Amino acid sequence: MDTLLSFLSNISWWMWIIIALALIAVRDIIQRKHTISHNFPVVGHIRYMLESIGPELRQYLVANNREELPFNRIERGWVYASSKNENNYEGFGTDRDIYAHQHIFINNAMLPYKLEDNHPNKKDNHFLPCAKVMGQYNNRKRPYRPASVINVSAMSFGSLSAKAIESLNKGVKIADAYHNTGEGGLSPYHKHGGDVVFHFGTGYFGVRDDDGNFSMKKLKKLVQDNPFIRAIEVKLSQGAKPGKGGVLPGSKITKEISEIRHVPMGKDVLSPPNHSAFNTIPELVEFVEAIAQETGLPVGIKAAIGKLGQWKELADYMKANNKGPDFITVDGGEGGTGAAPPSFADHVSLPWVYAFGDLYKLFKDKGLTERIVFIGSGKLGFPAKAAMAFAMGADCINVAREAMMSIGCIQAQVCHTNRCPAGVATQNKWLQRGIDVPLKSERLAQYFNTFKKEFLEITHAAGYEHPCQFKMNDVEVNVDDHNLSKELDSTYKYHKVEVPFCGMQSLKDCPHLGGIA
Ligand SMILES: Cc1cc2nc3c(=O)[nH]c(=O)nc-3n(C[C@H](O)[C@H](O)[C@H](O)COP(=O)(O)O)c2cc1C
If you ran DSSP here, which 8-state letter would residue 115 be given? Predict the structure, then answer.
């Protein structure tokens, strides 16, 4: 034994390295799973290593400021700086090619809108509620005017961590916005004082019976027990994966998730592509009406847009029967997700501008736009993009990934792996420990408030008091030359219906204004 130990201790360190490499080489040659390391023992590993750190190398060192997707460095930097209340300006002028195809211009007025001394925005430069009231046309018992035009989009507890959900909820409370629950049900982390829009999809999580069917009784009780739920959103589809159901693996179902979602422990839970509560357009409308009747709340639908036939049927049915959803959330094909197959995320459903233009035109032709609050989502959390959305007819915007970035998401794009390094999109307790909830909630609120302030400044520059006054011909899209650049109305072939607006003070005095605890 002593001889062996003394022999081993006499082997020099470089000899140990050679031995280790030789063992790796033998293992590489014997194994048949990885062709590259079999054919190129030892050195083949360098390729795998570089491939795995490639995204980080490109993100930090190689990619230029405007290159990355979904959000480039300038966009991310703007959200980070805004959420930290740091200097979010850029010096020396734009670094964008503003002559590029599809670039958007907002037509400024010769003289901007002037705030009088007693104007609500003189005291509060981010007071920016929605110009329409959800549920007013349909005489719902509890109509709701969102107190902020920017709100947190559907992201469930399960796809986001408990600490992320709590930060978002506390943040929307500070910013007077609302927090959409996403499909995972109402968790304790949604109960920190912010307005909540309760959202459910085909899995009916949180409002399902033992067989997985929708339970009106459970929804009614949920709304009664939680008066901060201000509206209900029925998800038909989302931009990243329309028509694709999901599986929640039994292994991921903790006791807490099982209780919140009303699903059994240890068994895989399916959320199928279709709803079991309705099959046809009239049935969908009657379902919406029944929920509104039972809960007293405004009820809306969320969808990604492709074919228009069934939407036409919906508009016809709404017109003929004088009922239907109080709001419609249009999600663009560029929208985010916790997890989706790339073939869906990249190709199924239209990008937001095409989707929204098609849908709005259809409802406008039937004279229905006044009764619907239109919500847009799909990378709209930037003031100039929001101005374009409002010019096209949006009344509010929902943001998901921008909100995640404001609370620390670094766009690692690993939401589907449970390994989110920022603790935002993971259930790993250790990774979540880095999230300081009071700080992150302030950051979400600061991002929303900065957004609203800058959105108002752009609105004033265009000569308006509220972004609802933006018209299609206030925004132009570049098609190579100014003489060829087209205002939105000639590009998308419609004019937006004027939103009734009697001044910011009237929104402040509205009895249905949200954000009031
Ligand atoms: C992590 C994550 C989870 C999401 N979960 C849901 C969901 O439960 N239901 C839903 O309708 N949309 C969901 N979405 C889509 C967002 O609500 C939103 O529609 C989409 O990301 C577009 O907004 P954005 O571009 O601001 O991210 C999710 C998105 C992300 C990033």
Answer: -
